[in-house]
């Protein structure tokens, strides 16, 4: 594996989340939106793949919010992240919760070299818009999942509405997340995601939007609205791969 691929991380992004590591599980902290959308994300994934008994990899697991939820549904979960402080928080919370998750500080590209075609399901949520080379991450996820297995991504669309909602609204007006959390230029259009999935040997099987109502302060999934946040599921083409 090339050194370039091994360094597909933005050190400033890692530092940003590590600085908040102790607050991952504080539901009134900067991570409140993640806690609020986590049941939606978990239900969406479980509805697609039936998590119980599945071997699952959560890429960019952070403090373990999604990883724990999937483990509680009966999945055998491995969570990877490049922020050691995040993983320390995740490990401590798992001990307190009595949930078994295998947390590792390793780049997804490196794990893909070590364990190709090892997982039934790979999830990579709210991460692609924070890395220098999203395609490299998608390719590694494809390499890690078994033929016929599912990969689930989530990210943010790139258009004027997403700028207004995800940056102006969420960061400055509603203060849902800290200012500077997102870089508009790193947002990813569904057409780009679909193309990258195809290049990586993944066939998109489902896509849905995640919308927020600032009046009711409730998040929900909405199939026909992928203007801002969206989830995308893709299946590893049988016989493709590494």
From TrEMBL:
One of its GO terms (biological process) is methylation. InterPro entries: SAM-dependent_MTases_sf, UbiG_MeTrfase. Keywords: Methyltransferase, S-adenosyl-L-methionine, Transferase, Ubiquinone biosynthesis. Gene3D superfamilies: Vaccinia Virus protein VP39. Its EC number is 2.1.1.222, 2.1.1.64. One of its GO terms (molecular function) is 3-demethylubiquinol 3-O-methyltransferase activity. The keyword Methyltransferase applies. S-adenosyl-L-methionine binds at residues 41, 60, 81, 125. Pathway: Cofactor biosynthesis; ubiquinone biosynthesis. It catalyses: a 3-(all-trans-polyprenyl)benzene-1,2-diol + S-adenosyl-L-methionine = a 2-methoxy-6-(all-trans-polyprenyl)phenol + S-adenosyl-L-homocysteine + H(+); a 3-demethylubiquinol + S-adenosyl-L-methionine = a ubiquinol + S-adenosyl-L-homocysteine + H(+). It comes from the Bacteria. The keyword Transport does not apply. It holds the Pfam family Methyltransf_23. It is an enzyme of class 2 (transferase). O-methyltransferase that catalyzes the 2 O-methylation steps in the ubiquinone biosynthetic pathway. Belongs to the methyltransferase superfamily. UbiG/COQ3 family. NCBIfam families: UbiG (TIGR01983). This is Ubiquinone biosynthesis O-methyltransferase. The gene is ubiG.
């Amino acid at each position: 594996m090339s050194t370039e691929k091994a360094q597909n991380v933005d050190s400033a992004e890692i530092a940003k989340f590590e600085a908040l590591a102790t607050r991952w599980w504080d539901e009134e902290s900067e991570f409140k939106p993640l806690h609020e959308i986590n049941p939606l994300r978990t239900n969406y994934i479980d509805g697609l793949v039936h998590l119980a008994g599945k071997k699952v990899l959560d890429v960019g697991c952070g403090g373990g919010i999604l990883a724990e939820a999937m483990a509680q549904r009966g999945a055998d979960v491995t969570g990877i992240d490049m922020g050691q402080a995040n993983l320390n928080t995740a490990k401590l919370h798992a001990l307190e919760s009595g949930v078994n998750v295998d947390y590792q500080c390793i780049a997804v590209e490196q794990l893909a070299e070590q364990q190709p075609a090892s997982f039934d399901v790979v999830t990579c949520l709210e991460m692609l818009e924070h890395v220098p080379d999203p395609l490299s991450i998608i390719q590694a996820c494809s390499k890690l999942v078994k033929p016929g297995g599912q990969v689930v991504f989530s990210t943010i669309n790139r258009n004027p509405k997403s700028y207004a909602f995800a940056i102006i609204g969420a960061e400055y007006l509603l203060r849902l997340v800290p200012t500077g959390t997102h870089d508009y230029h790193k947002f990813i259009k569904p057409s780009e995601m679909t193309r990258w999935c195809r290049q990586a040997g993944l066939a998109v099987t489902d896509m849905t939007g995640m919308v927020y109502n600032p009046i009711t302060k409730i998040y929900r999934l909405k199939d026909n609205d992928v203007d801002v946040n969206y989830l995308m599921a893709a299946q590893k083409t049988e016989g493709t791969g590494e």
